[in-house]
Specification:
This protein is α/β, with parallel strands linked by helices and 736 residues long. The protein folds into four domains: 30-304, Glycoside hydrolase, family 3, N-terminal domain (TIM Barrel); 328-426 and 485-596, Glycoside hydrolase family 3 C-terminal domain (Rossmann fold), CATH 3.40.50.1700; 432-472; 613-735, Immunoglobulins (Immunoglobulin-like). The chain has a six-stranded mixed beta sheet. Strands 12-17-16-15-13-14 form a six-stranded mixed beta sheet, with helices on both faces. It has a four-stranded mixed beta sheet with strand order 9-8-6-18. A hairpin with a 2-residue loop joins β19 and β20. α14 (319-332) crosses α21, α15 crosses α21 and α16 (402-410) packs parallel to α20. The longest helix is centred in the middle third of the chain and has 19 residues, at 454-472. The protein starts with a helix and ends with a strand.
Length: 736
Amino acid sequence: MLWRMAMKDPGASIQARALELLAELTTAEKLELLDGDTPFWSGMADIALHQASHRHPWPAGQVPRLGLSGLQFVDGPRGVVLEGGATTFPVPMARGACWDPDLEERIGEAIGREARSFKANWVAGVCINLLRHPGWGRAQETYGEDPVHVGAMGAAMTRGLERHAVACVKHFALNSIDSSRFLVDVQVSERVLHELYLPHFRDCVDAGAGSMMSAYNQVNGLWCGQHAQLLRRILKERWGFGGFVVSDFIFGVRDGVAAMLAGQDLEMPFRMVFAGCLPEAVADGRVPMQCVDEAVLRLLQVQLGVPPGTYPASLRSCEAHRALAREAATNSIVLLRNEGQVLPFTGLTSLAVIGSLASMANLGDRGSSDTRPLPGAVLTPLEGLRAAAPDLRIEQASGSSPQAAAELAVHCDAAVVVAGLDWRLEGEHIHPGDIAPILRLVPPPDWMVRLLGRRRLMPQWRPVANLLAWITSFASARQGGDFAAGDRTDLTLPADQVALIRQVAAANPRTVVVLMGGGAMLIEDWRQLVPGLLMLWYPGEQGGAALADVLLGRMSPSGRLPFSVPSQASHLPPFEPRAPMVVYDLWHGYRRLQRDGHPAAFPFGFGLSYSQFMASHLTAEIQRADGRMTQLQACVTITNTGDMEAGEVVQLYLEPPAREVERPARTLVAFQRLLLAAGEARRITLAIQLRACATFDPAQDGFVTEEGVHRLVVARHVEDEGLAVALELEAELVCR
């Protein structure tokens, strides 16, 4: 079986070399390849005392006697997290607002190149868990709420990274609550799992991802790290994934034998659970050697496939990468409100810039994706405006006194209030009490093993590990710490920021509010008070320059929301961050708002422009091969009818007949970003996967199209009436 798996292409030198190496490895060496190369206790001390994850990559798979230098892991959703001057890009949610897979692929290439300059060759830069609720603390790390959109963006990042490194896609699967991620059990039906929460992972597999990270949480009563249905039957067998599965860090394996049998190939970053149980499990037959060999072969093939190349440190934050960060930050800005054409600013002699976030580097949370730009590398909103308009008198107020800020604003031609979230209000979370059960499995220190021997030591060590776990079970997250923020239960802005906005808006009728953050905020109680409103996100190191370009009219805003913003929290699905169990269904985001008849405050796909666009001449056809449908194709002409160059996002939605099963009224099936000169018209073609038009039928174990008339609609956003064309589809099993 291993020969067949490795030699699908008999001439492939990588597969052949991997098999040669497999034959040369001893059993002990094979088992050592199944976990990270760092001992547990020294590694934990390195994290606690030296912030190790920001100092060096985490190694795995090193076998010097065979010339294997190993895989070197680094995190990187918004840029390489190591100290040393890597570029900080806008967070993935901001890049999701660009709706631009081509741009995302270029960013993936840049992150991959910079990772290699740090001697890393394995990058966890593809976070694609679906945004089910805007309160998720790590919303900023994914691309949005829709699987077609998230899948296209994640696949693009995967392709870019894989040109220079191994892409790690995470977290497989249904990992979209942070405060209870170590304990929550997500209950989900087969249909919902395949139709909504897995397609984007499949897109990344199809894009060539070399590794997939299993999640901490449970799905239908089984931990993801030892979930045979997810890891083996779906990922490896159904989808044909040829890479390897890696555990989420430190606490991702609960039962080493069960994990190995389920398809977990590598435990990271320490020698921990696998090292403690697999030697005995292999010796007594609980884990077949064939299972070990399969995992090792996958790891060898990926390691041998790392692209060669020279990557100097000068690549970090080089001019080209800074320009790329600025392009992404500019294209991500979503103009939400522009009453009376308050923007772009023209004819100003003075401008009040108000709010503490205006003058601070606000790049995102301080969890595993936290980057470390060099001093002076980050251009804040205030610095960006001052650099772009040196002749404009810009006055600043921190906003700590709303009255003083209002007095400043009243004496200026216009006012900009920068408000929103930061790392203290949302982010990754570790609850020490939740990880206590895993601590029972920690290995003894190496010096104890050397002193007493493993056989003699282990009976004495187990009570010590149990005591450590018991003590930790009473712990809670340190308030104000890097991993403390977690999920948001209040989606409104802090009260002091709302008071500031109200006073400044009352003082100056040309007030524009700039929102920073990684997810939706509820702003219904004040948004009508300001004529201008835009979303800046966590915009990366070039965010200040991007903001100035848009506010001053040098670039038209072209970002589109990658999620829906509801008018009230009651329109969202239930969300309890500390829930031990939660049910995921088909209904979240725009799907839920449509079903329940609640118009969004700002719909999925929404965003204003300084220009205008028109769609015309929409046509569609079914493409066939051997008498079967293969895909749908739509063609449409988009015209920039305005007077300036601007970007537009063409969004194509499907409206199914929905006679057989309950379905959303309208879902995204394709999109494309365009940059059009004033007056320019362009005809484009959009390819639509049949899987995106189908429902998953558990009885047929596959995706089935529904017979009847389907409408394809080109729309500015999900609630826009748009331009439609009808197609008659047959009932057909289109894929597994």
